[in-house]
Amino acid sequence: MIILRGESMSKQLHEIRAVKGETIQILDPDGNVVSKELEPNLSDDELRELMRRMVFTRVWDQRAISLSRQGRLGFYAPVSGQEASMIGSQFALKKEDFILPSYRDIPQIVWHGLPLYQAFLYSRGHQHGGQIPEDVNVLMPQIIIGAQIIQTAGVALGFKKKGEKRVAVTYIGDGGTSQGDFYEGINFAGAYQVPAVFVVQNNRYAISVPVELQTRAETLAHKAVAAGIPGYQVDGMDVLAVYTVMKEVVERARAGQGPALLECLTYRYGPHTMSGDDPTRYRTNEELSEWEKNDPLIRFRKYLEAKGLWSEEDENKVIEETKEKVNEAIKQADQTEKMTVPQLIDSMFETLPAHLEEQKAEFEKAGE
Amino acid sequence: MAQMTMIQAINDALRIELERDERVLVFGEDVGKNGGVFRATEGLQAQFGEERVFDTPLAESGIGGLAVGLGLTGFRPVMEIQFFGFLFETMDSIASQMARMRYRSGGRYHSPITVRAPFGGGVKTPELHADSFEGLMLQTPGLKVVIPSNPYDAKGLLISAIRDNDPVIFLEHMKLYRSFRGEVPEGEYTVPIGKANVVQEGKDVTVIAYGAMVHTALKAAEQVKKERQAEVEVIDLRTISPIDIDTIVKSIQKTNRAIVVQEAQKQAGAAAEIIAQINEKAILHLEAPVLRVTAPDTVYPFAMIEDEWLPDAKRVVQAINEVLDF
Question: Of all helices (H) and strands (E), which one includes residue A49?
Fold first, then answer.
């Protein structure tokens, strides 16, 4: 996969950001290429794979929402609308790169290798959901807004100290950029010049609070300036733009050129989570319809169709594949033995202290 | 055997572990060139270099998050919080992140982190430097909390903490840093976490204490012996989470009377927990209620009246007399 165009690409991006000050876009909402010079050099198979993953993620999300309504999933934060920003950014990583997700960033860690059934178990509070397979380089989803940002600086510092050519990548929303930990994390990363990439998925709402109330900063990418690291604003509904800029900043970080921040302008179509949020209380249907016109799947489909790389048949195949895979995963989650309180107690320390041994025995006795 | 102050013993433990295990990293505010505001890390950066011993930007939450991240990549972070009064700045990293890493990952990841912090009253620091916040750590599952009372234990316990694969909060009482010297063996040795130490044997009453209050208890014990020939058994907990209840119960089975002394405020905290456990495991051995000698339930009053506020030997003697005369 050869995408990087080395320094010339960096220069181009830098100029776009610094001189034009505009949002980086490669495809317009109709799928037309508007920045030919930035179009990535992806193979036909890779382009199709990007589309497959976005369709898969959309269908999986719909299915998860319905499972959640049936009470068969636990905590779930819908992702539809954010596929380009999630899938495009993860697609730019190598397997050895390490993702520190927030709770909505399940697609990225699944595409990075976490088995889907474990993601479902995570949503139900089963500890096996967090038992990331040895060869999968992700952390469990973070609930505390911003905590993963400073941890990312730490993981990246670890990679740098060990001389490993790996990048730590983290995700946060627009609201999360107001947290102290966000500033501390990007500042530490800048001070230590570590291989970290901070992806801000600006979906315009922190639950109900609009981004305009979070900050008077012109863009969230501007927040990078104070940390002394490059910041880019990308059309987060354009998978090619997200991928291209992400690839650039990730490879720069890998090459020892320091961290970067990437702001993806996107939108979540659904509620904040499936735990009772009603988006009509804080945003209009007109606004939702406007954003749906920017849909990342429609845009990319048009681009691929024009190239003869995607058809309705392809799409239907992915939809069927997804339904099958989701059904298998939910079945596997259902068949996983329920965790127990003694197992929970065991997970507190490497070696249990006496009082926990005692408490464990009490529960074991009660369970007999 | 060398005579060392507690601060020298701590420095010695850090040096030994930095030397022994290249995964050990020491970092925090001013720990590099300056050697820490109390000189706990004196000379370590010069000896081990800036890769191993390094300054951080001034942000305690960031320091905690950095430790969590470094722990995930195979390092053994020894982070310093300049004063434990700044705990709240890094509370999320400690309580919500490192203490939960095993739980959240079902044991796949862990946080082999030592959090070192000076604390403790009587040295006229500004506000929010001296506070005894260890009770908050006791209520946080997934942490161990260690508070040494002398140079020997400080070195052996710190080495144990650094080698532990779970997060250990290691609290260093500022008043003990340089107030006396003690015998400290050269080279490596460990003092086990979770084991109390009977520092003085006695048959009439048990005094349970930790940190600087061990010395207050010993002073009170001496006075009680002089005044009424009662023999006081003094237990230095050394670790307050987990609590070595077996040693306490064994002592109470002998003395049938006990008091707990802590520098922290009265409500909740270590003393309350110890008494609850005594209630569960030794109540039928008791001849008198277990009393607490603590600071009052106020915020820590820095400087002017701190000596009156802190528990002293006189108050410990009163409590001992009360349980003896019950």
Answer: helix A44-69
